[in-house]
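CORE FACILITY INTAKE
Project code: CF-77B
Contact: R.S. (postdoc)
Sample description: multi-component assembly, three entities in total
Requested service: structural model of the whole complex
Turnaround: standard
Below are the sequence entries exactly as provided by the requester. Do not edit them.
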Amino acid sequence: MDLPQINQFLVKEINVGIIVIDAEAKVKFINQFVLSNTDLATDYQEQSLFNLFPELPEKWLKRKIESVFTLNTPAFTSWEQREYLFKMRHTRPITTENDYMAQNCTLLPMSNNADNQPELLGFIIEDATDVCFYQKQLSQTVEKLEISNRTDSLTKVANRRYWEERLAIEFERAKRHNQPLSLIMFDLDKFKNINDTFGHVAGDTVLIEVAQNVAQNLRQSDLLGRYGGEEFAIILPETDAEGALVLAERIRLGLAMHQIKVDEGTVIATLSLGVICICDDYSQYEEMITRADMALYQSKRDGRNRTTLYQA
Amino acid sequence: MSIPVLICDDSALARKQVKKSLPQGWDIDVGMVTNGKEALDYLRQNQVGVLFLDLTMPEIDGIGVLEANKAEKLVDFVVVISADIQPEMKSKVEGLGALAFINKPVNTEKLSVILKEYGLL
Amino acid sequence: MIDIALTEEQRDCLQELINVAMGQASDKLARFLNTFVHLNVPNIELVNFDSLPADFTENYAQQNLSVVSQGFYGNEGIRGESLLIYKVNTLDDVAKILGYEPGEISDNEQLTDISSILTTTFLNGLAELIENQLSYSAPRVVSSATSSLDDHLKQLSFDWDLALKVDISYMVTDYSFDCDMVLLIPGEAVKNIQLVLERILKEY
């Protein structure tokens, strides 16, 4: 075999797509890999690229082709931004769920001499279906991990770490935009009695139902978190003291009327709540937590099943 | 009598490139300065036949030199040798009295064409 | 760790080559973008590999950045990676500059498109001046609102010894658009660049 024969053989057999066009987007050459994975007839010569592949985004791609001819530089497309350029079948129809071959494409200026203006443009089309598939799976796994990393495993509301992270962000935002921000912290009354009377499994059921019942009262932008044991906390962005108090009372009364069924009978859980609204004196979000906690314990001291607004 | 020539560029490489590109056998005395301020000082004290001038330089840039030269008529022949080669820049320096505009990198062929055109060679 | 210091002559030579390549690039870009491209004299700086992350943190602290990376390699052992760094709020005009319809392509693809054009046009010009020829890998968004530049630099820092930092600022008529270009070059390739610079200096 001489060198041209070797080149020709490899271009025919390689698992990489090659399409060559001129400056008017007339097709000069398509290799076997592209022909095998599309339904193109072999009389493609001199036809317009955009007629042969009507799926191509014409305006954008024409501009891109123009850049290759004008600037004499290669251009690229990646499956990460655009899953495919040419609709082609891929070689993993069973193990992956992609409809078409995911592709990394290079648009290469072609001329006999590097200094000359390009005569032709070659598309080099690499099959990235495997990478794309595994990357998607990985992203899904990472996403699941992230969710589980910030969720309390029992009650499925935010865990303490994530809740505090979010509070830090909301605190900064409220300060910057001079908007109100409120917190409600609450504790189940006499939770130890529930555990002692009905057992820990029932105690867990109560915690789960309390979280669900409270969550029903919240907006999309509010965040309920389990602060620890039987203590929960809610971030209320763009909410003033009055709004937070009204909500706290609605939560308290709603739960007090809710019967929680456990194996051994029915539990009525009541809450002691502390409410605080941001004010200019606070420079750190932790100051809000401490003061909401103080209000919560005031509610306990005053006889439980009640709400206290922190007042300086 | 040899023609006094001044090369003004902040880059040592560029000054050497210009000097080396000057046609062989051209009877000249070459002076070199490294920015527009030095160029104007030099031109005010010395008679110069041809100035080869870069545009982007510290202190006073090539445009500043051209403007001062337009007002003070320090040198007749100014050849701008520039990396900024957009057509807008070319017309700007020609408007300020530059004879010619050469794209960097400079070479003997480019220079000879210009010098012959103006009868300097 | 190898000695990466350039002599004053080498530095001047490199600066001049970069100026010329940048001039050629902006002329080509002006033709392609159909507008006048104003280009500031690029400031080049050689940065030691362990000072770059701190340098970046200082320059870009508290800012939302997008970073696009593109590898390049050529003859004579010249290779490296170009980073283009954009402030996120300067990106609104990129689609208009490129002549795309609004909403036609994603933000990331606009970024990789403009980055590839800036990098390859400039580096092709530089390659031609040093009689080399470069090939490129596909541009990749390595840092955006959701991932950090720090992480990327930390991963890179094992593989490069010198950063040639080229600050460029492109201003396009009717649109303002700035970005910084940083060329990261591994130690062996720096030596090869020094050889090339010495060869050019000998010619003059």
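Facility notes:
- Strands of chain B lie at 3-8, 28-33, 50-53, 77-82, 100-103.
- The two ends of chain B are 13 Å apart (CA to CA).
Invoice: internal transfer
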